[in-house]
Design a protein that fits this description.
Layout: E1 15-20, H1 29-41, E2 46-49, H2 54-57, H3 67-78, E3 82-86, H4 94-99, H5 126-143, E4 149-153, H6 165-178, H7 183-190, H8 217-245, E5 251-252, E6 254-255, H9 264-268, E7 275-278, H10 289-305, E8 312-317, H11 335-345, E9 348-353, H12 380-394, E10 402-403, E11 407-410, H13 413-421, H14 432-445, E12 450-453, E13 464-467, H15 477-486, E14 490-494, H16 516-520, E15 522-529, E16 536-540, E17 545-557, E18 561-566, E19 575-582, E20 585-590, E21 592-594, H17 596-610, E22 621-628, E23 631-638, E24 644-646, E25 651-653, E26 659-660, E27 664-666, E28 671-676
Parallel strand pairs: 1-2, 1-9, 2-3, 3-4, 4-5, 6-7, 7-8, 8-9, 11-12, 11-13, 13-14, 14-20
Antiparallel strand pairs: 10-22, 15-17, 16-17, 16-18, 17-21, 18-19, 19-20, 22-23, 23-28, 24-27, 25-26, 25-28
Helix pairs in contact: 5-8, 6-8, 8-13, 10-14, 11-12, 14-17
The protein binds alpha-D-galactopyranose and zinc ion.
């Protein structure tokens, strides 16, 4: 039985709130007063303060102004509203860049930024870190014991990379440590005899500048790892200051879903709470609403899985529209609540917004907010936000419960980086992220929630594990997968499994490497890349056929059962889908990019054999379960414009308080959350 993990016992509820920027309104006490009234009306119980307040806190070097913040935090607290307090380091005051230009990043072309924008500090700059330490210490000393403070929010959406001399030197030191100060070890790992790229000293190594070395896979990958490590190191620098002064206040930083440049799994180890910012393009013109929601659910699942399934925070979402999508469409009525309840269904214990009130000027003046320039509380958005607040209160008892996931999908940043960088196949068709997402969606259709985990994680609690395009095998990964299958797991791997080691050196003796050929009972002799209009087919023994596009491996099966063979081309009749029993489990191999219908057929066979019952939903409906102790909460989300009926439920529907004895009807874009009593 899993127990509850309350993120914020002090609040004891699901959080509802968002980024609040009172520093933009200090000359309007009437507005600040009105904000409190409006927040209470909208059932707001938390705000995030100070995300970009550095220039107001410290208008000149060493001149500090915090009284305004204290007054605001006091007033919020007196009105039952808690504070998430950010460190203001996501954007720098002009004086800082003027005096310490090394705080500004250098880009891939070797050019130093000018002052401006945000999220662009150099992570290695000593001067920057010194000023960060000063402001963070002041904040922690002054506000660390404030009764309203529940969480530190480090900087904002950390990201990007820096090629300045300080970062380069840290990179070289990182490599020295990694390769035991032995340049020959590095030369071997990076295969540098190719094109005469051998190094004779670590001093010769540069990051992959746009006009520099970009042809060494190991270097490219190590630069990405370093950049992620360096950002994590910077984040830890801020965290350490706060932990020293306020050890009891948890810390988070807001992630950006599948953001490509940082290995969130490594960063997550340093955080007490995972939070992220979600801005889906609802009701776009290229996919169904169901698809958009499924992609969002995948992102939620990725975030949830970063802490082993504990509840996480939806830190930002748009109350209405955003201002940075290619087309900034209004959220249609009903979408807001549905997206909020979806977040909770996926394990979020919060629904937070960017932003509380629209600013009058600058880049985000047209970004949606709970309170518009109109300043009224009878707007559609304000009312929908208020409704969300009421709904979250009705769902209060869900806080701290855990999402049930019977399957896992392997997704690793190293693998992603290596696939992206590999010169081969077809650049535009590799689509690793998209392929992972499609498998998640297929499982959702089959009524099974997936966690998104790493190839080296303990997989034993998942009856089924899907490993799309597991191109790079980290040390220990193959062993982990073998043990998982031997212990009774169902492992489904695909084309492009096990081509390279952690340095992107190809495995010798057959792919999938590191002896995984034995686990699957086959090796891949060649891989074919299809032109966009080329097609092949996977033909199953029962006559079912599914389209193949993009990639097809020619497999040599030594010891496996063949489930399907190719239908076309010079490799027609050779195996494409196989399985092999090993110990208590089964290792499945899908050698080509088969249509999702084909993948779903394989998943159905596998789930049946593993004795896992899914609960397939009608098209456009999501179902997910959160549990703790004896309690089970079932979420149904209708992402269609028609009413949908579901049967087989018993319990209490929390949003309406109604008793359910079998059937529930979901309104168009409606949701139901049932405390099960079966
Ligand atoms: C990000 C940032 C916010 C804001 C929003 C706008 O998530 O963290 O500061 O810029 O985008 O959508
Ligand atoms: Zn730098």
């Amino acid at each position: 039985m899993t127990e509850r993990t309350q993120l914020f016992p002090k609040v004891g509820a699901l959080l509802h709130g968002g980024d609040y920027n009172p520093e933009q309104w200090l000359d309007r006490p009437d507005i600040l007063k009105e904000d409190i009234r409006l927040m209470k009306k909208a059932h707001i119980n938390t705000v995030t303060l100070g995300v970009f307040s550095w220039a107001v806190y410290e208008p000149q070097e060493d001149e500090f102004h915090f009284d305004w913040l204290e007054q605001i935090m006091d007033r919020l607290y007196e009105n039952g509203i808690y504070t998430v307090l950010a460190t203001p380091t996501g954007a720098r005051p002009a004086w800082l860049d003027e005096k310490y230009p090394d705080a500004m990043r250098v880009n891939r072309d070797g050019v130093r930024n000018r002052h401006g924008l945000r999220h662009n500090h150099c992570m290695s700059s000593e001067n920057f870190r010194r000023r960060v330490e000063i402001i963070d210490r002041k904040l922690a000393k002054r506000f660390g014991k404030h009764p309203g403070l529940i969480l530190w929010h480090i900087s904002n959406e950390l990201g990007g990379e820096c090629y300045c001399p300080a970062c380069q030197e840290r990179f070289r030191n990182y490599l020295r440590a990694k390769f035991d100060n032995d340049i020959e070890k590095l030369n071997h790992a990076w295969w540098t005899t190719f094109w005469s790229h051998r190094f004779t000293s670590f001093d010769q190594i540069e990051p992959p500048f746009s006009n520099g070395e970009g042809s060494i896979g190991g270097l490219n990958l190590e630069w990405r790892r370093f950049n992620s490590w360096n950002m994590t190191d910077y984040m830890k620098f801020e965290i350490n200051i706060l932990k020293e002064l306020t050890p009891d206040i948890p810390v988070t930083t807001n992630f950006m879903k599948m953001y490509g440049m940082l290995d969130y799994r490594q960063m997550a180890k340093e955080l007490d709470v995972i939070s992220w910012d979600s801005y889906p393009r609802f009701q776009n013109d290229y996919e169904s609403l169901w698809d958009t929601f499924a992609e969002n659910a995948f992102d939620h699942a990725l975030m949830r899985s970063l802490t082993g399934g504990k509840p996480f925070m939806l830190m930002e979402s748009a109350p209405g529209l955003v201002n940075w999508h290619p087309f900034n469409k209004l959220k249609r009525p009903g979408i807001h609540s549905l997206a909020g309840i979806q977040a909770v269904s996926c394990g979020s214990d919060t629904v937070q917004y960017f932003q509380w009130r629209k600013g009058r000027g600058s880049f985000e003046q047209y970004h949606g907010a709970v309170v518009d320039h109109l300043g009224r509380d009878d707007t559609r958005i304000f009312q929908e936000v208020t409704q969300m607040g009421e709904e979250l209160e009705k769902l209060r008892e869900v806080a701290g419960t855990n999402v049930e996931a019977k399957a896992a999908l392997l997704f690793d940043w190293d693998n992603r980086w290596a696939i992206f960088d590999m010169a081969g196949l077809s650049k535009e068709k590799k689509q690793y992220e998209q392929t992972c997402l499609l498998q998640y969606k297929s499982f959702q259709k089959l009524g099974i929630e997936m966690d998104i985990v790493s190839m080296c994680d303990d997989l034993s609690r998942y009856p089924v594990v899907v490993a799309p395009m597991l191109y790079l095998l980290k040390p220990g990964a193959a062993e982990n997968l073998r043990n998982y299958v031997r212990g009774g797991g169902q492992l489904i791997a695909t084309y492009l499994t096990g081509y390279v080691d952690e340095n992107t050196l190809c495995w010798l003796g057959g792919f999938p490497g590191d002896s995984l050929t034995e686990l699957f009972g086959l090796y891949s002799e060649e891989i074919d890349t299809l032109y966009p209009s080329d097609r092949n087919r996977a033909v199953f023994a029962d006559g079912a056929e599914f389209e193949i596009r993009d990639f097809a491996e020619i497999l040599k099966v030594q010891d496996a059962e063949v489930l399907a063979s190719y239908g076309e081309d010079f490799y027609a009749g050779t195996p494409v889908v196989t399985r092999r029993k090993e110990g208590q489990g089964t290792a499945w191999y899908v050698g080509a990019r088969i249509s999702q219908e084909g993948m779903e057929k394989i998943y159905r066979i596998c789930l049946k054999e593993a004795g896992i019952a899914g609960r397939p939903m009608p098209e456009g409906v999501e179902c997910r379960v959160r549990k703790a102790g004896e309690e089970t909460y079932v979420f149904y989300l209708n992402e269609t414009e028609q009413a949908v009926s579901i049967s087989g439920e018993k319990g209490t529907e929390l949003l309406t308080g109604r008793t359910v004895t079998d059937q529930i009807t979901l309104k168009p874009l409606g949701a139901a959350v049932i405390r099960r009593s079966i």
